[in-house]
Amino acid sequence: MLDVTRIFDGDKLYTISPDDEEVTISTQNPDDESTITPNKMLYFYEEGYNFEMDIVQYVGRKKIQYIKLIPMDSDAEIKYILLGVDIEFSQIYKVIETGVNDTQTTIAIVDFEVNLPLEESLFVFDKEKYKDYYMNILD
Q1: What pTM value is reported for the model?
Q2: Which CATH architecture has domain 5-137?
Q3: Which InterPro entries match (predicted)?
Q4: How confident is the model over 38-56, as pLDDT tens digits?
Q5: Residue 80: closest CA among 91, 72, 90
Q6: Which of 41, 63, 80, 117 is 20 to 30 A from 71, alpha carbon to alpha carbon?
Q7: DSSP-based three-state secondary structure for 43
Q8: How far is it, in rounded angstroms, from Cα 85 to Cα 56?
């Protein structure tokens, strides 16, 4: 997914793709293992993987330590994941997932802020903003 916005209101997930002028709407259960939540994105690696230290890379002034995560499940569709951690702040910087078919998916954490006051409207999908978009309702 390139440059998409995801809004989850506790019931439905809205995936907004400006490139495709499309909004995909689906019902989500945050407890379902297949549902991606911000919390799951930051802590997915804690179970089900063997890990080993990988390369250290400098990105600007940031020192990034990569950790290679290898699924314990031999039938997994993931070959391995490289988890890049900003050493100074002990925060995830980048996740690079390589599938068994060598397809790579990269998620970069561009900005990480904590304890921010959030407006309720941040989690509300405003259909009027996307009236010219195709609405792909999955369920």
Answers
A1: 0.64
A2: Clam (2.50)
A3: LolA/LolB/LppX, OM_lipoprot_carrier_LolA-like
A4: 667 667 777 889 999 999 9
A5: 72
A6: 63
A7: helix
A8: 9
